[in-house]
Amino acid sequence: MKIKKYMAYAAFAFAFAVFSTAFPPLSTLAETPVSATSGVPVTVVGESEFVTKWLALAPFPNPKPEKPEAGSRGGGFGHDFLAQLGGESAARVTAEITLSGEFGGVAWSASAKPYTLDATRDLRTLFEPNEDVLGYLFADLQSERGGEMVFRFVQGAADYIKVWLNGELLPTQGAGEVPVMLKAGLNRLTLKVERRPWGWNVVGVHLLAKERADHHERVRRFTDNDMLRVKTPWFNPRFARPGKFPAVEFENPELTALLLDMETLTVRWFDADLNEVTEAAKPGFYCGYLTAQSSPNSQPLTWRRVVPFMVFDDPDKWLWRWDFDNKELTAWRDGDFNQTTWEANRPLLRDIFYDGWFQTVKGDDAPLWMGQMTLDRDPADAWREAPYTHLQEYMARLRHKVLSRPAPRPLAPPTAEPTAPALREGTEAEAGLKPGTVEKIRAVLEGWRDKSGHGFIAVVARRGTIVLHEAYTGAKDADKTVPWLSCPPNQLTDGKMTLASRLPTASVTKLFAGVTLGLCIDQGLVSLDDPVAKYFPDFPTSGPLSALTVRRLMNHTNGLDGHRNWLGLGGMLNPFLDNPALWLLASDASGLSYLNYNGFGIDLGGKVVEDITGRSVFRVMRDGLFEPLGMDRPTIRDLGYGLECTAMDLARMAEMLRLGGAYDGKRYMRPETLALLMPEPVKRHAPGIHASGGAEFGIGITYMRSPSRPEWNTDAPTILGRSTFGHGSATGAILQVDCENELIVAMARYTQGPDYEAHKDKFLQAIADGLEKQ
């Protein structure tokens, strides 16, 4: 089934200096004033503004009804809690207001507080993390002349938000952006936001002048969409017979003509051995490399794209069959593929095929996964860490060749560190835990499993001693599907969790990506403050975009948005992923001033590793981290969210970080290098960034402070040590390192489930209560 994406597209970043002639300059964002009459913050709106200053009024109850309003999860979404203030569309709010009442048999009390929205915070920083609640946000927009603009959510699910502008309810449900008309003077903006399991669904609102928004949307469609096809008599436009290569066409020639100078289009073809060829002499994998200059009426850029292509003598050789009953991919006939290669690749190819079911006929996916088998010359029992390992290696070498990049510099393996211990099983006394602590932790985990219905595998270790490593099977595990993979959790045995179950870690993957970059830093191959133009030659060396550094790719100050799709060439398989980023950044001059949590920048950090090493970053991770750490054959699809592994794999990584970069007789990096990856205020290296308080991000690493994510409030209580670090996860996977208490905590799971934050805090509290203090 087709994957549903709950992610609104947003526009970010600075334009080139020459681009300033195409659009008016941005307004200067001064300190946000506050309306003297209401206490509602005022944002002065220019050509492109992020609305981050609000007055929040919350929490209100949102109990789950039998039939909630469309696009919501609770009954409160359709109830007007502001009737006593004039109603939701015209509420008269002040900074001192407090409301109370009853709804659905639940008594409530709500108060107003000033609030700053950005990628690192949500309303959990102000209110209790109960899922069944909602809140209102109010902001005034000051426009000098008024006019048509485009309203966008930044990293918010529009399905769960209601928006009023000057009393008019906007049609935002299911929409990433909405055209609006601002009047001259003050405009009241009101949001009604539900608390979802992963947060409050909105971290910002972006207003763009329509002309600027239209241009950015054209660029987004052009860089994201699969618009290339070739003339061929077969139904799949990426297959052909030997001979002359088919001509390349654009699916949307009108849009293409607006952005590209077609007179400059060039196409070069390469075979499976990276020889440049003029025709397909024999069956196999081929790749086209396309370039063109931007059109005269756009900013001067070079567009780059690859087109994967399969050549067959006989169409029967590439037919396949999908067994829906067993969810298995089987060859109709072997064709050009050795049966051993087919069997070796089938577990990963099955996931690729299932995810790309609606894309294989038209897009890049079918020739890509067939190309993977064609290029796979490893032994049958070789460890394939990524679905497209060999294709990604091919694409990395192709990029080096066509861009004449410096000679690859391989990453050296870990060095010997004989004194570095490995995790070992032991007793509570050896770990420095009070007697009976493990039983108390186990009781909490059993209660979590029983109440949520979802299983998991947990690991708790202190001072290098594992006191708990157990699998908990939930009632829903056997038939529960992973939301974005549409398939059962990996590695279940008879529908049950086991210690060997490999489960999706979602954004914990970013930590592994950051550590991989740290390996390169430790060996002097890259510096965090290197400009990206050093590795991405299309990027300018002067002007606003030259401020983009490797650090800013990794700490969410890069002006990009969202996570790239790993299917096709939308993500890490694209050897020129920096090229879509450049076009998007140059199309709007605002995002580099704002903090925005995303995976796109993390993927680009991986492309830096590929530029340095000339290899797929996933193979670099396998050879430099996964295998030396003794991880149990994990798989990875994307650096922002794509790692699947066991709970013990997470624990090994956590312990290596706790020990300052060493584990089990090997040193991966020096402690001073690890210190460079730790969270720090983002304003330290991006002083112009608009971020709340002391917003901190590291290189794929964040502080993990519980309960209720007190963020950077140094006075807020925490369960574990205040410097506990790791990374959060949409699946609920846990990787936390508490050096103060010599503790690591890991959990593999496939979904957060209900009341996740509360259950997690109880789990951590049970651990904290059992710590013997020295």
Commentary on this structure:
The protein is of the alpha+beta class and 774 residues long. Among the domains are: 31-208, Sandwich (Jelly Rolls); 226-382, no CATH class. It is 22% helix and 24% strand. The protein is built from 15 helices and 38 strands. The strands form 10 sheets. Strands 1, 3, 4, 5, 6, 8, 9 and 11 form an 8-stranded mixed β-sheet that branches. The chain has a 7-stranded mixed β-sheet with strand order 25-27-26-38-37-36-35, with helices on both faces. β36 and β37 form a beta hairpin. It is globular, with a radius of gyration of 26 Å. The model is unreliable at 1-32, 358-362 and 481-488 (pLDDT under 50).
Provide the CATH architecture of the domain at 31-208.
Sandwich
Query: What's the CATH C level of the domain at 31-208?
Result: Mainly Beta
Q: Uncertain runs with pLDDT below 50, 5 residues or more? A: 1-32, 358-362, 481-488
Q: Give me the count of strands.
A: 38
Q: What is the SS-derived class? A: alpha+beta
The dominant shape is globular
- Helix segment count? 15
> Mean pLDDT, as a whole number?
83
Helix share of residues?
10-25%
Rounded Rg: 26 Å
What is the percentage of strand-forming residues? 15-25%
Biggest sheet layout: 8 strands, mixed
CATH fold annotation of the domain at 31-208: Jelly Rolls
The N- and C-terminal alpha carbons lie at a distance of: 55 Å
Give me the oligomer status.
single chain
Compile the SSE list and pairings.
Layout: E1 42-44, E2 48-51, E3 53-61, E4 98-103, E5 106-116, E6 133-143, E7 147-153, E8 161-165, E9 168-169, E10 177-182, E11 185-194, E12 205-209, H1 210-224, E13 228-230, E14 239-240, E15 243-244, E16 248-250, H2 253-259, E17 260-270, E18 276-277, E19 279-280, E20 284-294, E21 302-311, E22 320-323, E23 328-331, H3 339-355, H4 365-375, H5 389-403, E24 415-416, E25 424-425, H6 428-431, H7 437-452, E26 456-462, E27 465-472, E28 503-504, H8 508-522, H9 550-554, H10 578-586, H11 600-613, H12 617-629, E29 635-636, E30 643-645, H13 647-658, E31 662-663, E32 666-667, H14 671-677, E33 680-681, E34 696-697, E35 702-703, E36 725-727, E37 734-738, E38 743-748, H15 756-769
Parallel strand pairs: 1-6, 14-21, 25-27
Antiparallel strand pairs: 2-12, 3-5, 3-6, 4-5, 6-11, 7-10, 7-12, 8-9, 8-11, 13-16, 15-19, 17-18, 17-20, 20-21, 22-23, 24-32, 26-27, 26-38, 28-30, 29-30, 31-32, 33-34, 35-36, 36-37, 37-38
